[in-house]
Design a protein that fits this description.
Blueprint: E1 5-14, E2 24-30, H1 56-61, E3 70-72, H2 74-83, E4 90-95, H3 104-112, E5 116-121, E6 134-137, H4 151-156, E7 159-164, H5 167-177, E8 187-192, H6 197-210, E9 213-214, H7 218-222
Parallel strand pairs: 2-4, 4-5, 5-6, 6-7, 7-8, 8-9
Antiparallel strand pairs: 1-2, 1-3
The structure holds S-adenosylmethionine, the ligand Nc1nc2[nH]cc(C(=O)O)c2c(=O)[nH]1, iron/sulfur cluster and magnesium ion (MG).
């Protein structure tokens, strides 16, 4: 049987974060996450409840956030993207935690159709994607779910987009990357948590000092999804 994916949302927008900021993209948001970040902005994707299962057309029609999801394979996803007439050629697979799923079938099928793909992951699960996928790891340290960031995920990352609230978050990032610094290929970005002014100020200052990139959630400033 083809690999099945639980889809919480699918929509066309502008990538608001990281090195692809400004690029038009189709977002595929998968259901399920047990990492438990207290400040997570997509908590409606955490739980997978049978009673929330619905049809894909209901999911792609919905305009409000909900915990509903539809189970689809990669062919069904691509057919729905074509039916909706999406024009973006970049596809961002996020969640929830998308690496709870084996994403190889989906990413390879999208590449075959001429799309580029990007994965947004916490780095707490094995990253199973096509070689050509761009992987954004946003490390989650000491969260409620008790999961650890995997070394193999950090080494696969093309971008490490670290959430920053206070100076402790910079220390946690240093502890993660310093042992790997010779092997890492990723661009490091700092992303202020929840647009907090102090977090934004800290992230900006550290990016200047360290020659890192600042990632602000631009979609939230302009009021788009
Ligand atoms: C909602 S998560 C989903 C993908 C994956 N679970 C992860 O954490 O990377 C997508 C991105 O949003 C970031 N994020 C979530 N809530 C945020 C918040 N309140 N402020 C800033 N970034 C946030 C995450 O760190 C991650 O980079
Ligand atoms: N516009 C926009 N850009 C994003 N980049 C990462 C997002 C995510 O939730 O993974 C996101 C999102 O939700 N919206
Ligand atoms: S890992 Fe991602 S989806 Fe899961 S709780 Fe943290 S920010 Fe939210
Ligand atoms: Mg988001």
């Amino acid at each position: 049987m083809a690999q099945q994916y639980r889809i919480n949302e699918m929509f066309q927008t502008i990538q608001g974060e990281g090195v692809y900021t400004g690029v038009p993209a189709v977002f595929i948001r998968l259901q399920g996450c047990d990492v438990g970040c207290p400040w997570c902005d997509t908590q409606h994707t955490w739980h997978i409840a049978d009673q929330d299962k619905t049809d894909l057309i209901i999911i792609t029609d919905k305009s409000n956030e909900s915990s509903r999801w539809a189970q689809v394979d990669s062919c069904g996803i691509i057919k729905e993207m074509q039916r909706l007439g999406y024009v973006a050629k970049h596809v961002v697979i996020t969640g929830g935690e998308p690496c709870m799923y084996d994403l190889r079938e989906l990413t390879l099928a999208l590449h075959q159709q001429g799309y580029s793909t990007q994965i947004e992951t916490s780095g707490t699960y094995k990253v199973q994607v096509a070689d050509a996928s761009f992987v954004t790891v946003s490390p989650k340290v000491n969260m409620k779910g008790g999961l650890s960031v995997r070394k193999d995920a950090l080494l696969r990352a093309n971008e490490i987009k670290h959430p920053v609230g206070t100076a402790k978050d910079i220390d946690a990032l240093d502890a993660l990357i310093q042992p790997l610094h010779k092997q890492l290929q990723a661009q490091i970005c700092l992303q202020p948590i929840s647009q907090k002014p102090r977090a934004t100020q800290l992230a900006t200052q550290v990016c200047i000092e360290r020659n890192w990139r600042l990632s602000i959630q631009t979609h939230k400033y302009i009021g788009i999804d």
